[in-house]
Amino acid sequence: MKLADRIGRLGTETAFAVSAKAAAFAAQGNKVYAFHIGDMNLLTPLHIMEAAAKAMKDGRTGYCPSAGIPQLREALAADINGARGTDYTMESVAIQTGGKPVIGKFFMALMNPGDEVLYPNPGYPIYESQIEFHGGKAVPYGYVEGRENFELDLDAIEKKITPRTKLLVFNDLHNPTGAECAPGEMERIAELALKHDLYVLCDEAYFDIRYEGKSRSLTSLPGMAERCVILYTFSKKFAMTGWRLGAAVGPKPIIDVIAKLNVNDESCSNHFVQYAAVEALLGDQNPSKQIVSILKERRDAAVDILNSIEGVHCYRPNATFYLFPNVTRVMEKKGLVDYDAFSDRLLKETGVSVCTRAHFGRPLAGEPNRYIRLAYSGIETAQIREGLGKFKQFVEGA
After folding, report:
1. CB 41 within 8 A of CB 384
2. Measured distance CA(188)–CA(154) in Å, rounded
3. In which domain, by residue range, is 142 found?
């Protein structure tokens, strides 16, 4: 059998490989502290589940409009406008089966073979996978350590723009680092997009998972709503990871194309789940606030322990549920230069399961430091303390 050539360009979400290792280790009777994957162990709020059940009982179990039910599109446009100062209408919204499909459909709508696309690296690996799968050239840009968090390497970004650069992937409130742009950084990104006529995928999956301050959107800046597509997901704010519901929000001509792709790919998103999402947006918001409160407690517990470990440095991000501690000195002390060897040894000796920088894109040339990524969305505070306590013993022991 000869598969299509494009399959050779298709990547994967490598965190799932870490999950398989952790599951195999646990199957041998070992305790695992699952910091490796950004799933959530928090229940979807009850009123959202009840709305889904009511919709099923009311017969909302068949097909629905490919772009999504009007009630949800209107509610989501209003919600985004209120948080970002935009003026989207329901025609600017195409409901998706999660946030991830927005990535591929953005590239299918706007990228021709050979076009160059700037994307964050380290970053969500599906960006690189989908760019290359659809025939584009993936051009990575990186981050540098700043005073309070990671910062965009803006000069490097500008130097990588060529006449073939057409698109930019911008993931503020960033997976895996937890970084967020200062106002000046975001304004510079907008200037570059306008100067070079770039369209932008704004991955805002973690826009509402924040503990201090207020999230900002590139779409709020002058001239940017016309050239940005927002990736929105219900997974994080409402603890709906398994419900598979999200949206593409942006200029109507692009959204019309994405809705047409919906027709070709999945027909429509789940009907009754969309009624649950309407309740999520318009109903009681206190459960969502409680979710954020729990995540903040977990963040603080993890950061405090990590920064108490000799040879580890970790920022305290104001958003997302990820930490990206620098473990360069730890790996040097243990005589390990390979990420897989480090994470395997950590799992076997402590039960702590983590992703590494290598799971978030091919490392850039000349990277001086080593990092691991910890997700705390699926692990209780007590287990965070216990697991990272074992990590500390592992690091500081002989």
Report:
1. no
2. 8
3. 62-282
What's the CA gap between 377 and 99, in Å, rounded? 17
What's 366's domain CATH number? 3.90.1150.10
Q: What is the DSSP letter of 163?
A: T
The residues, ordered by sequence, that sit 6+ positions from 342 with a Cβ below 8 Å of its Cβ are 327, 331, 334, 336, 356, 370, 372
Phi, psi of 213 (to 5 degrees): 75, -165
51 located within any domain: no
Query: Are the C-beta atoms of residues 175 and 38 closer than 8 Å to each other?
Result: yes
In the structure encoding, which two tokens stand for residue 22, read together? 């952790």
Among 33, 374, 83, 69, which residue's Cα sits nearest to residue 247? 69
| Number of domains present in the structure of the chain | 2
pLDDT in tens, 88-115: 999 999 999 999 999 999 999 999 999 9
Q: Is the pLDDT of residue 142 over 90?
A: yes
User: Is residue 198 within 8 Å of residue 192, measured between CB atoms?
Assistant: yes
Cβ 317 vs Cβ 356: under 8 Å: no
Q: Is the pTM of this model over 0.85?
A: yes
pLDDT in tens, 382-392: 999 999 999 99
